[in-house]
Amino acid sequence: MERDREDLAAFILRMRSRESLPVRLFEAIEQVPRRLFVPKGIANVYADQSFPLPCGETMPSAARVVSAVAALKVQPDSRILEIGTGSGYATALLGRLGARVVSLDRYRTLVDEARERLSSLGLVNVTLVPEDGSEGYGPGAPYDRILINGAIEAVPRAFLDQMASPGILVCAVGPAEGEQVLTRHHKAGSRFETELLASVRTQALKPGVAAVL
Hints:
The chain is an alpha/beta fold. It has a single domain (2-200), classed as Vaccinia Virus protein VP39 (Rossmann fold), CATH 3.40.50. The chain contains six helices and nine strands; from the N terminus they run H-H-E-E-H-E-H-E-H-E-E-H-E-E-E. The chain has a seven-stranded mixed beta sheet with strand order 5-4-3-6-7-8-9. A two-stranded antiparallel sheet has the order 1-2. Strand 1 (51-52) and strand 2 form a beta hairpin. Helix 2 (23-31) packs across helix 4 (89-97). The protein is globular and about 50 Å long. The model has no long low-confidence stretch (mean pLDDT 94).
């Protein structure tokens, strides 16, 4: 759609003015049609706002997703774990950037719908699993990069144990209600360093696998 092309161009200009992002990430943004992932009837899919998803979940704005993905500093050989597949938009960007992506979501409905979208884009390096991601996912470890799409009060030890060294984990840390801080955790050997990146507001990460949805 012509409107989408114009909105994408404007979005890329906004992101370039806000952050210094790698060329590979901009290429991934252009290759992944966000329209495929948002609810029907949205005029500007790159608007700086969140959108509703099935199962009571929320899809972050494109700017929020891109900023979180950029913070991971994904390399072409990166093995990535994503917690909270949602619509699959961030998953698609990660699939364009890294070597292997394992993405978990507690809602099978979201996993099935995201799988169809990612398959239509020909992304064969992405594995989607309907699974509780509150303690990571041991079968695919170790991971060079971990992205948690949901707020947590503290990073569980399991995630740090599943990280390769060197490795990076990005997540929002803070209370379920109110403001959180987007943080980047670096692992180097037995050392962990934490960077505070930005204030955010996001849904809390929910434990367990949904019984029905």
